Amino acid sequence: MTALADRAARAFEAEQPRRDWVLVGLWIALVVVAVVWLAPFVFIVFTSLKSTAEVMGSSAFAPPRDPQYANYAAAWGRGRFGTTVFNSAVITIVKVPLGLMISAMAAYALACMRIPGGKLILIGVLFGTMIPFQVMLAPLFTLVNGLHLIDTYPGVILPYIAFGIPYQVFILHGFFRGIPVELNEAARIDGASHATIFLKIFLPLSLPVLAALLILDFVATWNEFAMALVLLQDRDMWTLPLGLSAFQGQFSRDYGQLNAAIVMTVLPATIVYLIFQRYFVSGLTSGAVKG
Amino acid sequence: MTPQRLMQDDRLQAVLLLGPAIVIYLVFAIYPMIDVVVLSFQKWNGLDANRQFVGVGNYVDIFTRDPVFWRAFRNTVIWTALSLIFPPLIGLLLALGLNQPIFGRNALRAAYYLPVIIAPIAVATMWRWMYDPFFGLFAQILTALGRPNWIQDWLGNKDLALYSAFAAHVWQSAGFSMVLFLAGLQGVPKTLIEAARIDGAGRWDVFRHVTLPALRTTITIVLVLAVISSLKAFDIVYGLTGGGPAQATQMLALWAFTQAMQIFDFGRGSAIAVVLLVITLSVVVPYLSWTQRREESQE
């Protein structure tokens, strides 16, 4: 016992100074790499405030001498940001809460009610988390076209909901399963319906998970490009990513404005992320890594 | 039935709760997946009332008469292989570093994760500008370092373009692996690490014999997700190069899209998509059965 304690103490003493030194080195390395990691953002913001002449004449790392805030106004108009931001906002605001509600209802049914073939449905849902929807762009276009929903909000919101269901049901099902069965049974004996139990007990209990999924889904929907490209062909229906892609095609030599357009596209998701950071991590990892 | 009775009927409630999700999922996710298989055996321009059945004709076409298909296939394989190495490795190193008690580690984690939340199409637009051979970031850095002769047309050179595009993908996705590894590291038993250290094990020994085995599940998940996301590679390539120059960055997902939505050969586009689907399933099905088995053994 003394020998072990002795060895532990010695290991601790020998370890202490060396460990600090390693940690300092590690910290410096991590900070340096982080600066490199963030450098593109600084470069983009600097460029967005420069005139074309200054972009060509000055160093990329030089802050703008005479900030051209007009680049933002010009890019806003040329890139039709008013239209694309509005469309992205409508689609995101409708899709995210609606999709999450539908997923939560299904997750509750699968977790807490005895449903014939429930296990099979769950596997089918899990399967959907892994299938690349890029594979289905053409038939999706055919389907939505057949329903006369091309260039409409429902035409893109419904597929978005469909492709959000697997991950959300998977995560929420896992969470609902962790809630003691007795809670549900007691409420049932008191005469509560499943709808009541779901709304009054399970939803409030799962608020942290719902918040995490809400934030993740907000960013995913806001950023979605491939499906929008296929389902929204009319310029008046374009979302923000479609607008940025077209802007790049047309005005890629207007460096200042192009970079202003990038900043305006990236900013909303960045702000949401910086405010709700911790929810991202919990949302991503609550289902993915548990063992 | 009175409304009260209605609400007491379990079967009806199950239908009401589960129904919307099932209907939307079946119509907008499962049906298109089946339809893509059907379409792959047909000739269709996307508009005609009639779809003409051509058997395996589209598959014969893409395998024997379409050099771009093989180009895209090769690029997808390269992209996937690189995706299995670089983002997970960088993510693991960052996670190991940021799992230590160091100053400002939450801010550092946030910095590394930031690119993950940016739209891939915006990342593509950013990097395309950074790769500009005249005024872009990389040209400026090399000039500042006194190596202007190292400047390349990063996206215009067909030997480089694929790797240039991949670099942008690494920047965007390493933070995602990092977060998964950080979560995995929470599951490494601290007592085991302390015990090993007391026994005189060095850092490397602890990593090899304690940390790494404990991370096995996480590593599997990160790698499977890396494969799946690289098979989906679409936005970033579309935005950076559009598949060019000379198809040097063409990928299966993008080529399937181009065939169907731009050349209006829905049959061929779908056949390419089905090939991609089969490759995906060959990764997903074993993974899912592994997950099922693991869960059952835990219960």
UniProtKB/TrEMBL annotation, chain A:
Compartment(s): Cell membrane
All copies of domain ABC transmembrane type-1, residue ranges: 85-276
Keyword set includes RNA-binding: no
Protein biosynthesis as UniProt keyword: no
Keywords: Cell membrane, Membrane, Transmembrane, Transmembrane helix, Transport
Listed Gene3D superfamilies: MetI-like (1.10.3720.10)
Origin superkingdom: Bacteria
Membrane topology note: Multi-pass membrane protein
Membrane-traversing stretches: 21-46, 85-108, 120-144, 156-176, 197-222, 258-276
Primary location: membrane
A Pfam family of this chain: BPD_transp_1
Family: Belongs to the binding-protein-dependent transport system permease family.
Protein name per its UniProtKB record: Raffinose/stachyose/melibiose transport system permease protein
Species of provenance: Labrys wisconsinensis
From TrEMBL, chain B:
Top-level division of the source organism's lineage: Bacteria
Subcellular location(s) per record: Cell membrane
Membrane topology qualifier: Multi-pass membrane protein
Database matches in InterPro entries: MetI-like, MetI-like_sf, UgpAE/MalFG_permease
UniProt keyword terms in alphabetical order: Cell membrane, Membrane, Transmembrane, Transmembrane helix, Transport
Keyword Membrane: yes
Chief subcellular location: membrane
ABC transmembrane type-1 domain ranges (all copies): 73-289
Keyword match Signal: no
Residues spanning the membrane: 12-34, 77-98, 110-130, 160-185, 206-230, 269-290
One Pfam family cited in the UniProt record for this chain: BPD_transp_1
Family: Belongs to the binding-protein-dependent transport system permease family.
Protein name: Raffinose/stachyose/melibiose transport system permease protein
Native organism taxonomy: Bacteria, Pseudomonadati, Pseudomonadota, Alphaproteobacteria, Hyphomicrobiales
